[in-house]
Structure formats: structure tokens, C-alpha cells
Design brief:
By secondary structure, the protein is α+β, with helices and mostly antiparallel strands. The protein has eight helices and 13 strands. The strands form four sheets. It has a six-stranded antiparallel sheet, sandwiched between helices. The protein has a three-stranded antiparallel sheet with strand order 1-2-3, covered by helices on one side. A hairpin with a 2-residue loop joins strand 2 and strand 3.
Length: 474
Amino acid sequence: MIIAGCTSLVLMNGTLTVYADPDIDDVRDERDETQAELDEVNATLEELAAEQEDVEAQISEVSEALTQVMAEIEVLEGQIDDKEIEIEASRILLEEAEQRALDQYEAMKIRIRYMYEEGESNYAAMLMQAESYADMLTKADYIEKLYEYDREMLAQYQETVQEVADRKVVLEEEHEELLGLEKDREEEQQYMEGVIAELKEVSDDFAAEIRTAQAQAAEYAKQIRAQNAEIKRLEEEARRKAEEEARRRAEEEARKKAEEEAKRLAEELARKQAEEEARKLAEEQARKQAEEQAKKQVEEQRKQIEEEARRQVEEDEKKASEAARESAESSVAESRESGTITTTGSTTYDISSIYAANGGDTGKSIAAFACKFIGNPYVAGGTSLTNGADCSGFVFAVYKEFGYKVPRTSYALRSAGKEVSGIDAAQPGDVICYPGHVGIYIGNGMIVHASTERSGIKVSRANYREYVAIRRLI
């Protein structure tokens, strides 16, 4: 074991301590610093990947909307073509109606001119030639109907011309309206295509950053391998030095034993002196045993005090956990009846799907409580539900409010609690684990999670990315 720049070597006859090359500690410190930098780069990679996935999801959503707009434009173009056909047909009808009215008008002018020029005498002769009074009435009625017919035909064709003209105006207005809608959709299409282009540039930037971070991570890993190799070489060198020192010490001890054996006879002659030394040694041993016994009693008392303090701390933590759970459950009690929760940002959120799902009351309370913090910020390494938390910090803090101590990292959460077979078996409060990310299931195929610094704590579809595990922690 190498500590503080030295090596402790356990031998057959005891423990031998020699000082090793202090460069080992320097190399270890450098390796630990490189490992910390590698961990930071890996964390950045997870965050960049999550943000890139969010951008890709936005691209997919805008693309779907763009497809819908393009389909609407195609429908509008068909409607515009149909409307233009109707306008052309209406124009033809209008021309025909106007021509019929013109023909009728010309016929009426001829008949009226004839009536004024010759009509009076002819009509009078017609009446005088009547064979009877009834015949005269019939001819007079015919003359009256002829006048009435002209007036009715003129009014009828005027109405027809007006109706066709009005219809043409309506069709032209509808045509202009369709052209306006088409222009709006085309502008919306151009806008969405611009948004998609911008999002793709952002996604490409994320990809470039990810490639840079991956290259940096590979370089750090290479440095760590080289540093580990150097540490192994230095440790081997220190081990060889320790073995050499142990051999020298063993030879020295053997020499001393030989000298002591040579002195034994002389020491026997000084028996009384040796007995006195033995007595002193016995007294010293007795004193040491008494001190050792006293230390043992003090240590036992210390352990008893620590055990009592530990039990008291556990009892206090249990009470605090129960109080926290009661407080958290109380804060979402009304949501069971109302089906809504008010977030810390004073926004009302519908959580009726939580209580409509299968599962226990505690898990539903945890899911409802987590929704209180929708809209709060994402902070890397944070565990504050109000001031900011990362994905695992958010899960850790929510469960802590209910008195549960769960793992702090997304990787450790993958093996915590019990496994759930799939999303169809998930219940509110279960933890959905993704590569480098976690969220709390709230029913109806949705999760609440601390997503990214850009989007903060929000609600997403549970299948917005492929999960690796579903764990039930209660």
C-alpha cells in the first residue's frame, strides 16, 4: 500500500516501511485531474445529445406542420382552378342572359313602334271585326295580355341578368379570398422552411460540438492510460526498492541475532541484573495492560455514546422524513379532487391522467407533487426544485420530499428499486431511465423531467427517446 509518498511492505517477521519515489503521487494527482476533466466532458456530451434530440424533435414537428401546409396549398390550388371554371361559366351565362335581354328588348321596341304607328287602328279594326260581344272581349283581353307579356318578359330578363351578374361578383370575391389564403399558406411554408433550416444549422452545431467533445474525451482517455502505465512503472520500481531494503534489514537483523547470541553467556553471568530488568519489564507490561484496559473501557463507552447518537439521528431523520412526506402529500391533496395542480410559477396544469392511471396512492402523490415544479430551471449538478436541478437531482429531490433516499445519478437509478416490464406496466411515480437521463412517469404515456438548460423542468412523451429501464422505487 502506497500512502503519502511512502510504501508499506508486509514481511514474514513484521512490517517494513520504506520511502518511495514521490513522483507517484504527482502522477496520480495528474491522472485524477484528467479523470475529472473526462467526467466533465462526458457530462457535456450527455447534455449536448439531449439538446440535439430536442432540436431534432422540433424539426420533426415543424416538418409535419409544413407537410400539412403544403397539402392545404395543393387543395387551395384545386379549389382556385374550380372557382375559375365557375367564374368563366358564369361569365358565359351572363353574356347569354344579356344577349337574350337585348334581343327581347329589340323585339319589344319593334312591337311598341308598330303599336304606336299602326297599332291603334289595327287594334280598333280587330275589335270592330269581332263577330260577337264575347269575341270582342276575348280580343281585348288578348291585347291586354300582349302588353302584360312584354312587361313580364322584360322584368324577367332583367332579373336574370342581375342574378347572373351578382353570382359572378360572389364568385370573383371567393376567388380573391382563395388567392389570399394560398398566399398566406405559401408565406407560412416559406417561414417553416426557414425555421427548419435554422434548426438544422443548430443540430449541425450540436453535432460538431459532440464530435469535438468526443475527440477531447478520447484524448483524455489516452492520457489516463499513459498515466496509469507510468503509475504502474513507478509502483513496480518502489516495490523493488522495498524488497531490497527488506533484504538488507533481514541481513542486519540476522547479524544482530548472532551478536546477541554471543553476548548471552555474558548476560547469564549478570543474572541478577537480568532479573531486575525482567521485573521492570513485568511492571512495564502490567502498566501497559492497565492502560490498554482503560483505553478499551473508554473505547466501549465511546462506541455506546456513538451508537446512542446514531439511533437518535436515525429517529430524528425518520421523524423528519415522515413530516416531509405528510407535508408533500398535503400539498397535493386537493389535486386529487380538482384534477389540476398549481405550479410554483402560478400556472395551472391538468394532472387528471395521474389519478386515472393504475398504481398506488403514494406514487400518484409523488407524480402530482413533481408537476408543481414545471417551468422551473435546469441546473447541472443541482438538486433544488425551485432554484434548479438536473435530471437525477430532480428525481432525488422529489423523492426526498416524501422521505425516500434514492440514488443521486441517472446511472445508479437504473438498478434502484424493482424492475418494471415495460411502459404499458408503468405507474405514476415510476422512474423512466434513458441513456444519461431520467424522468418521473405521470401516466397517459407522459413524464415530467428536468430536460435541458433551455427548456428546464417540463412534461414530455415517455417515448420521446428510447428508454433503457423503468424502476419502481416505492
